[in-house]
Request: fold
Amino acid sequence: MKNLLGWGIVIAIALALVPGVYAQALLSDEFTGTDLASFWQVRNGDLSPWSLKDGWLVIEAGYNQNVWADDTATRFYQITDQDFDVETSMIVNYLDASTVAGIIAYSATTQDHKARDGQWVTLKLWGRGAAQDNNAVLQYQRREDDGAPGYVGTQPDYNPPQGIIPLEMRIKRTGNEYESWFKPEAQGDWVPVGKVTNELQDPLEVGIYAGIADGPGAGMMTVSYDYFKEASSPVTAVDPKHRLTVTWSALKSE
Ligand SMILES: [Ca+2]
Reply:
């Protein structure tokens, strides 16, 4: 009996360590240090060179990567089956290409409105190339659609020129409801973007991404993410000086 209990514990721990088997709450990250925290998974990490530098996750976006008809971006995500309220602060620097960067909640097990496997909600900065005068727009979309109720094809009163674009983004999930906000220039109060109902089946892959939709030879994009925060989860980070786990509040007080 004691042995059975022991094996039960071992199996429970093993399941908890296998991503996707046991979902959990999303974790916050300030992207300190040089190693990406182990709770992240990276999709298409080989297509866009990336690294942690001076407290930022810096992604040099690769080509032929989009989030529209398909999700082919380089994506950093965590798996959850719970409600969340996540935000990120980012600096997009792009030139002369069609580029995408933002927050996504992706469900591999949900069929989209065209009966394809895979559906999502994303708040996206679309950096537009010469065909649209080299300026960016903010969009709130599901897969290949921003015309359904609550989605936004072009956020009003926001149209920064290409170059360096700081902004913050936020998506809050409450059951099947997903609400979004942003902060132009990464300053001021949250500006509402949209609120939608999307019946995404758990587990969800929630995170941040970058990609250049055009092929090789088009311009460039560097996306620097300062942090990814879940409102209910304090940031933990490794203090490089003391090799100790410290909380975000401790970091802030230094
Ligand atoms: Ca940071």
Summary: The longest strand covers residues 99-111. The CA atoms of residues 41 and 77 lie 5 Å apart. The longest helix spans residues 2-17.
